[in-house]
Design goal:
The chain is of the alpha+beta class. The chain folds into two domains: 80 residues, no CATH class; 73 residues, no CATH class. Helix content is 16%, strand content 26%. It has two helices and 13 strands; from the N terminus they run E-E-E-E-E-E-E-E-E-E-E-H-E-E-H. It is elongated, with a radius of gyration of 25 Å.
């Protein structure tokens, strides 16, 4: 078993080997300079055989592949490669922008209080503007929403950081859509009852 760790200012790999009993043998510690994996950066950590090509400062990479991982070269972040393409069960992991924790979502009543029906106007969905755009850093073309515009439609449609709308809260949009569909169904039933030929 071999674990590689690169940390702080110099790209040094520390390979820790275990003896036959599965115990780390300090006499088998090996240190190797890596010059061809990525450019030198400050305060970086990677776990695995290789890190990130031009790994940015203040970043962590967990890489279980046999080649260096590509990434945003100017972004301090957590990089994980590979991620399994299909999850057959929930929960889904989420990042809390306030606490900086990685957590999983739960909907159990035991975690909640002050439970009431939706008070927001589900018709705010119709104010959303679906856009096409190119991502600045990579040029990739996307279809989506603009956080600032979605916030104007309804603040519940976005998540914020330091009071600024930064991203789309797709879960809230979905739940607003559920309420709007229920309203539309009631209206359809009323129309059918008023005019059975519909």
């Amino acid at each position: 078993m071999s674990v590689s760790l690169q940390i702080l200012e110099k790209p040094i790999l520390k390979k820790t080997k275990m003896n036959c009993d599965g115990v780390i043998d300090k006499s088998l510690l090996e240190y190797h300079m890596i010059e061809d994996c990525f450019s030198k950066t400050n305060f970086t950590i990677f776990i695995g055989k290789m890190g990130i090509i031009s790994q940015p400062n203040n970043s962590i990479c967990i890489n279980a592949t046999n080649s260096a991982t590509g990434g945003q070269t100017n972004s301090s972040a957590l990089y994980i490669n590979p991620i399994r393409a299909y999850a057959s069960s929930t929960p889904v992991l989420a990042y809390n922008i306030t606490t900086k924790e990685v957590t999983y979502n739960s909907s159990s009543i035991k975690y909640k209080k002050n439970v009431i029906d939706l008070t927001g106007n589900s018709e705010n969905l119709y104010k959303l503007r679906v856009r096409e755009y190119d991502w600045k850093s990579c040029g990739t073309h996307y279809v989506g929403l603009i956080a600032e515009e979605a916030y104007e439609a309804d603040p519940n449609f976005t998540w914020s950081n330091d009071g600024e709308a930064c991203g789309i809260d797709w879960n809230n949009i979905l739940l607003y859509a559920v309420e709007e569909i229920k309203k539309l169904k009631k209206e359809i039933l009323l129309l059918k009852n008023a005019n059975p030929t519909i």
